[in-house]
Amino acid sequence: MHIEPGLVDGAKIILSYATAAGAGLFTLKLAKDTIRQQGLASLAARTAITAAAVFSFFELLPHYAVGVSEVHFILGSTLFLLFGAAPAAIGLALGLAIQGLFFAPADLPQYGMNVTTLLVPLFAVKALADRIIAPGTAYVDLTYLQALKLSTAYQAGVVAWVAFWAFYGAGFASENLMAIGTFGIAYMSVVLIEPLADLAVLAIAKTLNALNGSGFVTRRLYNAA
C-alpha cells in the first residue's frame, strides 16, 4: 500500500509529518509498556524479527499496483499476534524505511503517509483485540472469527487511510473516486487470505512450546493476559 508519488505534494504533505509523529509517539508509549513487561532485549529481538519480516513481505510476496496505491500482503494482524503491538509497529516502520532507502527511494517523500497508513490500523487492532479476546485466552487459541475480525480491522484501516490521502491530495473527481474504489475492491483478496495466514501461523506456534517464556514472541501468545 505505497501512496503513489505526487498524489500528495507541496504544503499538503506537511500533514503526513504530523500524523507520522503522532503514530511515533504512541509507538514509544507501547514500547515503554513492552520493556516493562518483557524487557529491552525482548523488544529489540522481536523488533528485528518483525522488521526483517516486513521487508520480506514488501519485496518477496506478490504485490501489484491498483488504483491509487499498491496491494501488499502486509500481515499486520499476524505480526501483532506473534510479537505484540510495539515490536510490530517499530518493525513496520523500520521495514518500510529500509525498503525506501535501498530499493525504492522514490517512496521516501511519502514515508510519513505510508507509515501512518501502516501503524494507525495496527493500533486499532490492539484496541479491538483487548475487547474481543477474553483475558484468559491465549492468542494461539483464537477462533477463525476472531482472526477475521482483527485482520479485517487492519485491512479496513489501511484502505481508509489510503482513501484519505487520495481524497486529501487529489479531491473528489470521478477519476479519483474510481481509482480509490478499485483499490478498495482489490484489497478484498488480502482480507480473505490474511485470517487463514493468522490461524496457520498460530497453529504452528502452538506446536512450538519452546517459544513459551522466551523473549522472541509476545507473552500473550501462549498465556492469559
TrEMBL record:
> What subcellular compartments does it reside in?
Cell membrane
Membrane-crossing ranges are: 13-31, 43-61, 73-103, 115-133, 153-173, 185-205
Q: Which InterPro entries does this one have?
A: CbiM/NikMN
Q: Which UniProt keywords apply?
A: Cell membrane, Membrane, Transmembrane, Transmembrane helix, Transport
Against Pfam families, the record matches this protein to: CbiM
Q: Which GO terms describe its biological process?
A: transition metal ion transport
| Topology of the protein relative to the lipid bilayer | Multi-pass membrane protein
GO CC entries: plasma membrane
Q: What is this protein called?
A: ABC-type Co2+ transport system permease subunit
Q: Which organism is it from?
A: Rhizobium wenxiniae
